[in-house]
Design brief:
The protein is α/β, with parallel strands linked by helices and about 375 residues long. Helix content is about 40%, strand content about 15%. It is built from 13 helices and 9 strands. Strands 1, 2, 3, 4, 5, 6, 7, 8 and 9 form a 9-stranded mixed sheet that branches.
Length: about 375
Amino acid sequence: MTTQFREPTGKPSWPILLIAGGEKAGKSYASAKASASELIGQTYWVGVGEDDPDEYGAIEGARFLIAKHDGTHKSILAALRDASNQPRVDGKPNLLVLDSGTRVWEMLSDEAQERANMRAKKTAEKWKKPYDPDAEATIGPDLWNKATARWQDVMDVMREHDGPSIITARLDIVAVMDDKGQPTKDKTQKIKGQKSLPFDVGAIVEMPERGSSYLTGVRSLKLDLPVGNKVPVRDFSVDWLWRKLGLDAEGATAPRQYSSADGQASAAVPEEEAPQQQRMQQAPPANPNEDAGAQALHARQAAARAATPVWGDEQAEQLEVRLYEAKGNVDLLRSIWKSAQGMGAPQAVLDRIANINKPQAAPADTTQKEMAAA
């Protein structure tokens, strides 16, 4: 397949705006007020874990419709897609509001925890081990990966939307960590949500408290914001920001173009992986200078590599059982670590095994060297 190339449009797309705020700071109000802008047609509101903004319908000029869903990831995603696919009104782009992104990620995290608990219960029953229903099982990297993939499904819908969109999030006050990873007395504000959220949006507005707004990040040639600076904005409105970005002129915008990264689609194309797998699993060409014994040894090594199972859900479940049985047994933990490494376990899994039974987690590289050298 030949790669296609295109010229850049030279025009901005309607941005994904993140409004992060403290308690009752006005992030939902600002989103509802944005629906009154003359730059857009209809507004579609998808609320998650927040009260529906019925009262905000009384804002002068406000025009928005509230989506109904059952609170599951599937239903929320369907609501976002349906909203994004609605036709334009009078040729103007529609506004898509997700309130709140924080609660979506919390829901996905809760789902991962529930799946981890179910897995732990199933494993305990299978091996006739005691099970504490009140204990929270460790969420494995595979479950976190699934939660992250589901979050990216949400972001993909926002990216595909041909119009402006707003994601709200909570702004938490957290302790500043020192160089050793210990909390200090200093405090800072942090956006609460999936860690890639600030990187996935085109602009960020923070509202620490009601009446206080700061533009903390923007991707634009029209509005220059020095990196790391917080620009206070008096009487902030989303309509003001859109106009500052130069989106109010006719023909000023172009549909968003982005390069997707689809792991499922990549996994469905085995021929892409075949050359690498062959290099890993097949024996190298026979060396005429080697005797028959050396050639046979190489063939056995290649066969062993081919027979090694690839890391997956089954290996993750087996790991939980082995770790349960290995508590306090350093030699067995080393054996488990080497086995997991050989099966291509994620780095987070290897770090977790290496740090078990340690009063304070040692640096990952040092701990793994100890495991590998044992």
